[in-house]
Amino acid sequence: MERISRYILIAVTIIIAALFIPDFYRKATEKNIRAPFATYSSVNKDFIIFRRTNTDIHWEDTKGNKYTLEEYEKLLPLTYYRQLLADGTMPDSIDGIAIDTKELQKNRVHFRFKPKQLDVPSLGMYPLFESASGRVNLSLPPDMFRIVNSGIEFMDAQTNTLNAEKSETFTKKMKDAGFVFPAKWINGNPSVRKAYDEGYFIKDSNDAIYHLKMAKGVPVIHNTAIESNKGIITVIPYEVATHEFYGFAIGKDNSFYVLSTDNYKLIKLPVENFDAKKSSLQVFGNLLYRNIIVTNRDNMHCYVTNRDYNLVNELHETWKTSEETLAGKAAEYLFPLTITMTSKYSSVINPIYKYSLLSIPFNIIVLIIYIVLLIRRKSDIKLYIPEIIIIVLTGWFGLIAIAMFPKARKMKQSMIKGFINIP
Amino acid sequence: MDNIIECNNLTHYYGNRCIYKDLNFEVKRGSILGLLGKNGTGKTTTINILNGYLKPTAGNCKIFGENSQRLSADTKRRIGFLLEGHIQYGFMNVTQIEKFFKPFYPGWKSDAYFELMNKLKIAPRQKISTMSCGQRSQVALGLILAQDPELMILDDFSMGLDPGYRRLFIEYLKEWASSQNKTIFTTSHIIQDMEILIDDCMIMDYGKLLISMPTQEFLNSFREFKCTVDKNNIELEKNNLIRNYEVQHGKLSIYSFGKQDEITQYINNLGINHGDITESKLSLEDAFIGLTGKY
Amino acid sequence: MNYLLYRKEWIKTRWALAALALLSIIIIVNVWITVNHDLRFVNAPRYWNAVVFEGYQFYGRWMRYIPFVAGIVIAIVQFVPEQYQKRLKITLHLPMRENRILLSMLSFGIVMLTAIFFILTALLTILSIIYFPVNIVWAALSTVLPWMLGGYAAYGILSMIITEPVWRYRIPQIILLAGVVYCFSFGYAYKIYNNILLTITIMAIALLMSLIYSGNRFKRGEM
Question: Degrees (nearest 5) of the Cα angle A245, A249, A253?
């Protein structure tokens, strides 16, 4: 039993070492490599890229021309109209379209997606806003709903009791619309800080996606009729002033869609290089264009479309990541095992285990040192085979663990006979 | 007569330092054996090996035929320990501690324990940690007598005790051991106490067992031979005859198992000028110092 | 015969256990008063939304530390008296196999720790059920669970450290304890341990028997 206990302690020590030591090293050596940020100019129909290092910031187009802040803003009147109006340099029209400030304001879109949004643990309670109250601002409803096997339940927050009548009404209406309980996922935008509310998109047990909201206290439920073969893994509601879409949707095959308000039509965005688990995506919209930026660890892609989501221009950039610097590469030789518990790709703890085969030469060096020490202590090497295997696999992490939790020592018989007795 | 304790080729090193090598001894049933030796000669080492809290580098100790490092539960029941300093659970009081140990030992003698406890002037709920050294030793003694084991291993039973408690300890132990043929293995710094208690003695000195014999036999055969000499820088070879010697203030003292005439002839042969040789019997303490020296 | 040892363990630990139980009650009462107070000042829907969407942990900042404190305190009051003057020698000489003795002491500590956690969990559940729907209660409990598992892990490792006979080994072992506690004590959001609950449960259970390692080293007289 002592042996089992010892090996458990050694294993846990190696895990802790793999958790902390590479992380300390990374914090000490990581370079801040900033992804470039690109916008699309409606004036010269080119990308303006914002590049920043620790010492210098500037904007440049794809041909390498550099711009100051003022010149940059002048190239982006659809975005910086407030500054240009204040400066008196705002043009009256672009591409033959007259500029109306209110329209510019209304057509602004800034949507961000990060992979960690996909696995935020849900507590299963949601506020269903009154979407047609007649008031300018939304207010929090007095209850929150959850969906259970038998239907939808509204819990009144003040009394912590079930509002049976409301629950039954909504359940019946949803069942009548064909909804099969329970739900597989529920997606909405539960903030009051938005212009209006479009409720929730809910996938039922049969993979049909329904749209639920409440207008004047009455449930409004529609089957979006989005084909299940599209494999929509999530809908991300995003309310815009133009009411032209409900938000965005992501497919199993990493397709990114706009979910339009025109009968829930899915408009596929012409983006590639998007991996919902690893890429962040931003949509910048103005009166004329949509600029969709997909950013990965070592590359970035801009896709500019017109308002009908047809591709107009694109830009691709790559760079070296911190892992590819000298310090980053050295890490692969130094650390046999690296475990990270938290990452920017996940909202929950999802440990990532990385075993580096490149560390094996270093492990062998550590093993040689260990064996030399064993010989000097006149230990019987045969008894240390498990320790040798541990060090071959885990290098100096294993050595630390074995040093912290030593084995019961047995002296070699030959050594005892060789000692001279003290008279 | 069976051997309760048997140690074979006992060897121990602390790091590279050898304490002893190939030590062999046995303790027969009914024997009260005392292990004597200066500090650092391996007394504590031996006791720790015997009570299973030190693994010897080589060799083994058998108690009741079992390896002392791996005693079975039943064998442990037959052995009573006294740890150095009369260590006990300080967080219990005298009642709790008896109640704790009792169920482990089927032959537990509560009367023996409480007889001693009633002599103690303590509050019934007083924690053992708040008692004096002597009171604690009485608790330890009471517990070990109540356990009534076949073998007792005592590590320095007199440590920290004043004469009254020491005498109490010895009297109780001797009475208990002799009336029931029990076996005791003990060490102590205070050799006068050992003299009263032990029947057999073992004297260790830096890696070797010097003697192992009944105390009486030792005291009957080991003598001090004293004479005046004319110079102080006499050097003698230590051998079977001359076990130890000392020259101080013009007096030569020789400690030996031999007879007076042997001694006389030996030093005459060495050409040492000396006065009359007087032979004296020794107390155990003097014999011990004589055998092992003052340093 | 295990329960005979429990009597000694109980004498050593009963005051500390009472203090821990009292502390748990005080913490929960404090949570209850705070939630009650806040619900009077912030309207209930706002409060619920803060819990669900802003990750507001209604049971307070201190809840995270209680299980670790409990594990550490029980390990200290059980094993420091045994380590003092090497009294563990007396315990290990009792007529039972040594590993059984050690496991018996461990099982007592585990039972006591579980009792404290039960008090904490039961009171927290009762309090939460009054104010919150079962979804929120479940989320709270599954967030607190990893901390309790960490309490067991801390107990297991600290009992080993206290019993380790050689001073210099204790120092890196304490660093290990800190690392393990860190692993079990993430608390910035509800349910963040959901994906690795099984892993950390296995780790906590495995670490509970660490005492066997150092207890046997003590028995051998390692230096």
Answer: 145
